[in-house]
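**Protein of interest**
===
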Amino acid sequence: MGTARSLRAGEGVPAPLVVRVEDTSDHSTVEYTFTHSPVRIGRSARNDLPLHHRFVSASHGLVEFSPRERSYTDLGSTNGSVLDGAQLAPRVAVPLGPGAELLIGSLRLTFPGAAPVLATGGEDAALESASPSVIRPGGITAVMQQIARAPTLDQAWQDVLFPGSVIGRFELVREIGRGSFGVVFEAEDRQLRRRVAFKAVRPGRTSQVQLRQEQLQKEAEAIAQLTHPNIVTLYDAGTCQSGPYLVLELLRGETLYDAMRRSRLGLSQAIEVAIEIAWALDHAHAAGVVHRDLKPANVFVCSTGAVKVLDFGIASVLGGGDVRAVGTPAYMAPEQWRMGQQEPRTDVYAAAAILCELVTGRLPYRVTRDWSAALEPGARPSVEAPGVPEELAHLLRRALSPDAAERPRDGAEWLAALLAIQERLDRPRPVETSPIDMARRWASRIEWRVALVAAGITAAAGVLLYELLR
């Protein structure tokens, strides 16, 4: 299965992807333009390119593009995808060459525009031409070094961080959040003329211990380069009089935690949210990044319907304390409780706990601030509830197993399992394409029309006989 990749240094910036969609049944044509990879295609409105036809699966396919290549992956759809006349195997990325023609039922998708080319000019030229939307390599390490040197001075925050103050090119507009990690403002980027989230990081001496961990610095740089529609974008990082700060994409909407408190999500919506989270995990795990603190409060449901994962590893990298202890009790895997090695399966456990809570209304294990039933011998998660299909319950039992080896190994495997369940629960109408199917359909129509004519003749004869005998 193809996975979305963030742009690497020297790769350059991809040209926008243009997708032309023609419905061959009525010859209508619509063009769409996308600037971020990947582009998800499907019947669900949560897709980047929603196609509201009954023969299109909820999550049908995926287009990935970069300056070097374009590819398409069928996500195991019911009716499949045909590229340049060949039926595609599910979950296998295939190149989209110049003039590529993709068929989904009666829909013809083409990709006009320049084909991807290799970036030229070397790494420095590519970095100079790169979009300002992603922080450059090395930026997070510089912030970590500044945090390690800076004392905790709350007075400096009060003197510098307030609505109306200007820090570099950013003007703080209003405070929108505060916590142990720092304070967040809505801010105006006066150079690019856009609203952003300005997060002032609280310095602390405990970060000095983490700074000496070379692996942690590498992970921090990987986090800074994550670029994905389901992960909040880190735009910039720097320092000011109050200390280090991060500049992130400003989101409108509410956290999944707040949404869950307000109302219960339906089964199909809960699975779609879980799939959006799984897309983020798939991308991050492919880049070698583990979140470690996935929970409803770190998932944001945008007013547009998009779902984004927040604080992807940033808290564990820049925050204080032992990195192994990062986590929220209700969603912590047993290995986190035991201060053991954390890996992608740790994130899968947390994602499954969120989905379990969405579909059952409760957590899979009884948990307190310092204890979880998942630590008991023979522990089994509680995932059964009215309306929860057995195949979903089976997947949740796997993903919530106290034994990490029994869980899906990473975000990619977790995503594939969720997509397969969604496809079976929301199976679209099969497309009749074989000659036998077409013959049967026309025979049925002819039989219906003959029956209708016969009924009409019988009725006319009855009326005539009545007139003659009257």
In short: The radius of gyration is 27 Å. The chain has a mean pLDDT of 80.
